[in-house]
Each structure stands twice: as C-alpha cells, then as structure tokens.
Amino acid sequence: MITTQSQRHCVSHLEAAIDGTKLPAGTIQTLHKGKPLWVRYDLDAVREAVSREDLVEREETMWRYRELLPVARDENIVSLGETMTPLIHCPRLGARLGLRKLFIKDESRLPTGSFKARGMAVAISMAKELGITRVAAPTAGNAGGAMAAYAARAGMESYVFMPSDTPLVNRYEAVLYGAKTFLIDGLINDCGRIVGEGKEPMGWFDMSTLKEPYRIEGKKTMGLELAEQMGWTLPDVILYPTGGGTGLIGMWKAFDELTQIGWLENDNKPRMYACQSSGCAPIVDAFDKGERFADPAKDPHTIASGLRVPVAVGDFMILDAVRESRGKALATDEDKLLDWMREACALEGIALCPEAAACLGVLESALAAGEISHDERIVIFNTGAAQKYIEAMQVEIPTLDHTKPIEWASLG
Amino acid sequence: MITTQSQRHCVSHLEAAIDGTKLPAGTIQTLHKGKPLWVRYDLDAVREAVSREDLVEREETMWRYRELLPVARDENIVSLGETMTPLIHCPRLGARLGLRKLFIKDESRLPTGSFKARGMAVAISMAKELGITRVAAPTAGNAGGAMAAYAARAGMESYVFMPSDTPLVNRYEAVLYGAKTFLIDGLINDCGRIVGEGKEPMGWFDMSTLKEPYRIEGKKTMGLELAEQMGWTLPDVILYPTGGGTGLIGMWKAFDELTQIGWLENDNKPRMYACQSSGCAPIVDAFDKGERFADPAKDPHTIASGLRVPVAVGDFMILDAVRESRGKALATDEDKLLDWMREACALEGIALCPEAAACLGVLESALAAGEISHDERIVIFNTGAAQKYIEAMQVEIPTLDHTKPIEWASLG
C-alpha cells in the first residue's frame, strides 16, 4: 500500500468559497476576504490513482481515502488510529418513530470520543507538513481536546481557550493532553477573538473552525465512509447537528467529489437537515428568512455545548448545501434534548450526545409534517460520546443499605 | 460472508477450570465448585471452517473471529459495532522509557469507551441465545455501563449495583443506558453478594465477572486482534492492568487456540505482566508468595477504579497464565498513577486511563530491574477512556478576563 508521493497527492489548489479566487496549495493559508477556503483536487488524477476496488485491501480507517485528502507526504500523517465508525441500524429507536430504516453513524468511537478527531487529524497533519509548531483554538466543547490530542501526538505546543461553563470533561481533557488551557467568562466568539489577537505576539497558528482549510477535508471522510458503507449509494435524508457546520459542509463536498470521480451507483443525493436547538439556532433563523448569511444568535444557551455557536464563519456554506440538497434547517425545543438523549441511549445502547438528540427532535417534527416519509433511509450522526456530558445527564441514584436485607420488591 | 450455523459454530463443550469436569454447552451455566468455566472448541472444525486468508474479506470487527466465538446463530449477535482497536506505536512515550518498540492497544475506542464492551457483547449475545431476558451485575467502574448498553441493545432488563464512590461517569452512564442502578456504601464484593442473593427473588441472571462463561470469550478477541495486527506473531511482553483479570486470562487462551489451529508464524509467546496498584494488589501478593489463590486485599483504594477488585474469582487462572508465560505480577505505587497517566496523554495524545498507567509504572520498574530489555516488542492495553475518570484528573485551570488586554507573556 506504500506508494510514492506523486501517485497519492492530487491537490490542485485552494479556492475562496466566497468568490472563487484561486490560491496556491502548499503554503500556509487562512481566510480570503474573511471567508473560508475549499481544497480542490485534480479529480481526473484521483480517478486514475485509485478505484473503489483498491479500497478493499486498505485498512478500515479514514486514511483509506488518501487520494481525496490533502496531506502530500505519508510521514506527515499524524494519526491516533481513526478507524471507520460503525453505521448502526436502529430498529428499536426506529420503531418509536415509525421507521424501519433508521441508522446512527457513531462518531463517538473516534480518538477523544468525538467527530472532532477527523478534522483535527487532517488539520494537524497539514500543520506539520507546513512547518507549524504551535497551534491555538477556541472551543465550546470537543474541539479543544481533539486539537490538544493531535498536537501532543505531533509534538506541537497547543493553546486552548474555552468558556468557563464548557463541560467539565472537555476542560479536563485539554489539560490532560498537555494543552495550555484557559477559561474565559464569555462565549466561544470571545475565545476566538483572543486566539486571533494572539497570532502575532504568541506565534501560534489559528486552528479555529474553518479558519484553516483542512479540518473540512477531515470531516469530509464522514461522507466518504457513509457512501462506502451503503454500497456506494447515499441515504435519502441526513440529519446533522449543526454548530460550526464543518461536517455538513464537508459531507456535501464529499458527495460532489464522489459524483465527479464516478464512484456512486446513482445520482440520488440526500436531503441535508441542519439540526439546532431552540436555545441557539442562527442557521435556522437565516434559513427561515431566506438569507445566505446568519445574524449572531442572542443569549445562546443549550446543554448541547457543540451547538452553542452563535456565529458560524461558514454560515453561507452550510445554507448553500442545505438548500442545494432540498433539505432544511430546523431546531428542536431545548427542553426536549435530554429526553431524546435518554430515550435513544436506553433503546439502542448507543451513547447518544445531546447534539445528536437535536436530530431526533427534528426528525420527529419533519415526520409529523410529512416532509420526511416513513419508508426513507435516514442517517443521524452521533457526533460525540454521551459520557462527556455529565452536566447534562445529572440524575439521582438510590442508595441501598447492604448491611440489611434487601427489599427486592422495591428495586422495580 | 453469510454461512449456515453448522459451518460457523465450533463449540464442543464447557470445562471446569478447577478440575477439568466437562459440562454441556447450549444450556445456562455459571460456576462449577465455585470456580469459572472455559468454553472449549472443536479446533479441527475451526481450522477447516476458516483460514487466516478468509479474514481479509471480513469486516474489521471482533466478529471476524466468528468461528472462535461461542454464539451459535448470527441473529443472536448483539452488536454496537465492535471495530478492531488500533495498535498504536508510541515513539515519544517509548523514548521517555528508552524503548523503540512500545505499542498501546487502545481499547477506549470500543462502545461505551472501554474494553468491557468485548466481554459484554459476547455475554449478552449468549444470554439472548439462551433465552435470558433480565440481567444483573456488580461493577467497580466500566462493566456496569457496558452491560447496560448491550442489554439495552438486546431489549433486556438490566440491574447494576455499584459502590457509592464509583466514578461519576460510570454511575451516570448505567442510568442513561436504562439500567436500574443502585449505589451501595461498600465494595464491589458487597454488590456482588446482592446480585447473587437476588437471583431467585428477582429472576435475573448473574453477569458478574467470570460467573458466566462467555465474557472471557469476548475478551479473548484482544489477543486475536493483536496477533493479526502483528502479522500473526506475538509481542515479547504484554503489560495488562489486572482487576478481575478476564482480559489476561482470555488473551492467554487466545494464544493457545491460535497455536493449536496453526495460525501463528512461530512459537514465541509473550511474557504476561499482571499490573496492579499498591492500593489493591491481591494478585501480586499471591504471586510473590508462590500461591495459586489470592487472599482478599485489605482496605483497597486506588484512583484506578477497575483495579479496585479485592477478590478475583479467577485468581488461579490469572496466576497460572502469568507463571506459564514466565511473566510476573507487579504493582505500581498508587501515588505514581496520575503522573504516568498525564505523561502518556501529553506525550502521545492517547486517552490513557489510570489502570493502564499502572502498566507504565510496572514497565519502568521491570526495565530498571533488567527483567524487560530495551529492544523488546512491548504492548500495553489501554482498557478505557481517560475522559471517564474525572475524579482522578482534577486540575485547576486559570481564568482570563477577556474584557481586558491579555498579557501574552503570562500564558507561558
């Protein structure tokens, strides 16, 4: 499986998402006119370099799609073993909603227990390739720990800034992975501003969501895996918990690239549902108003920390993908998140996070409205492990006195 | 890959570990003379049914070793997608110890974030096959959540009993997965007694470690995967965090079965190191005294909750395997666990749990004593995700005032 660089590296250039300006790959890039960049590939070269059949002999990790990833040299790949995540059929949860073909793609099974690993694996690999040795990022939840873990693996210095009310597990894991970690009495945007301001005095690279071009390429592998796991077809509907939205944007890009290299069995694309909480729904508001850019969410609050993103720099990329797919942006009532989380965990044994619970609420609404039909093939992304959200799942557990006889009938 | 039952099911009988008594498979079994049972296979039938080459076409999950697992019918397999765990080369942590060939097998990447998933996947599948609908278990850490998750997936009722000071994440996850969960002001053995006493009044099956024959078969897949990942050879040394010890016992059984079916490239077996904490080291005490059975640990205490097992029902099976392998049972100073955990996480980005940290302490001692040499191929098992141990990783994180200019020099 070892090949030379020229066979595997098919990046042609970077392209500004806002106006199509071409920028060179192979040098450090951030934003163009304040907006993100796409990585573009020579897809003819990809088609010549690899076939669907070639994949069968490759390890079941996200790096099996090597030719559709931006790292030029294998030795720059920074990996913690990003095994393909299982696509789990959910008959019991499906029955609850009247569905036979409900699937959860369980991203909690990646390094650091969240989908953030995909983006950071590629972003840190590219940082290494480009000679970066110090990185920083703001985080509202799982991103900070993921960056810290991959930076540790690469031997880089990392700095993480997070709101003081970030979930405890996310706070501790960043420190544990060796990041210099700081709390801010504010929101993720305040943290983002500090990361931006520190670039010059601290000499770090700003790894904020979409402020470097490569996290999206890592997230893209969610879509590549899904297509392969479904026999190179795509589901009818994807429900995706949308904070910064990189995953949704990345998957839509993946489906386009797969179409262009001719790997899909048919032209059917999924309708993409961007799912948010009523506590923080800027993308839903913009979708409802027919806008391409979102106003900042006011007073953002939700137990789904990954959805607490009042300003998404890729707002127009999310909204473009949702509309192009004939999908929707919808919010679930914040008060329902915990119930959906508990119900899914107890029915299927999958550690569903509150962000993914928002997708179940949206799904129920869309089924009731007749927008999604009961015989469609539906995929929800579980973006992180429920175990990382102890604040959300506070429960009282009864204590038994083991020195006295147990009253069995009282156990229920 | 679908075949008939007769081709895939190769169990011949069960065998009492204490005296070799044969017992029939296919019926509910627990202990014999108070001691655990082995599952025995017709290994000639296994050799005929499957070859190493056949595995290449199978999915990279623990079920690829189908013929060496006890489930008779595919439809009884209860799965949450048990993908093969990565075997991660650790050059930076290795350098810290003067090693070039140090590997961590990262079991935190299984469902529920711990190696307990392997055992429970098989035990709950077998419970389903045998018609059991209600299960109960004592737990000191990750086992309860894993049982609850697989029971949920199977649609079974589950009951979990745990000491009041079990880590918070373990307490919450059991509830989240729908288990009826109870705290006990005592130790895991007090919980185990309640589970035993409740069998008749509550009609549940006792899923305690080694009190049913199948968890060990699930844990066995750690050894099967390791062998395959190392090109059907075995490492020189395995360091394994040992509480109940099922994993160590299971791996040693796996290596024996692989030898008998002729899949290993050579006869070299690893030296097995059973690693404990000075706060609870009954197996180490028995090893040092030359005993086959261990005295209960007094005043057991350790941040490595999975090692807080004062009485292991499979003590003699652990000690037999360790001695047969020419390995050792060794304890790390409890006070060093947190430092090793932090160091490994920060050097390699792997979410090393405190149980696995005990292995690093033992490794350092054994290297210093010259028992393990610096050019050997060494594997440590990371049995769970560090993120599940928030009590162990308590840290103070500095807060910055984002409304004032940041003093960059103060960030370090």
Name a few traits of the molecule:
15 helices, four-stranded parallel sheet, alpha/beta, six-stranded mixed sheet, disordered N terminus, globular, 412 residues, Rossmann fold, homodimer
Descriptive notes:
The structure is a homodimer of 412-residue chains. Chain A is an alpha/beta fold and 412 residues long. Chain A has a domain at 87-113 and 216-391: Rossmann fold. The first copy, chain A, has helices at residues 5-8, 43-49, 52-55, 91-97, 116-129, 142-154, 168-176, 188-197, 199-202, 215-229, 246-260, 282-289, 315-324, 337-348, 354-368, and strands spanning 11-16, 22-23, 37-41, 87-89, 102-106, 134-138, 157-163, 180-184, 205-206, 237-241, 271-277, 328-332, 378-382, 399-400. In chain A, the strands form three sheets. Chain A has a six-stranded mixed β-sheet with strand order 4-5-13-10-11-12, sandwiched between helices. In chain A, strands 8-7-6-9 form a four-stranded parallel β-sheet. In chain A, helix 7 links the parallel strand 7 (157-163) and strand 8 (180-184). The longest helix of chain A has 15 residues, at 215-229. The N and C termini of chain A lie far apart (56 Å). At the A-B interface, helix 6, helix 7, strand 8, helix 8 and helix 14 of A face helix 6, helix 7, strand 8, helix 8 and helix 14 of B. Strand 8 of chain A pairs parallel with strand 14 of chain B.
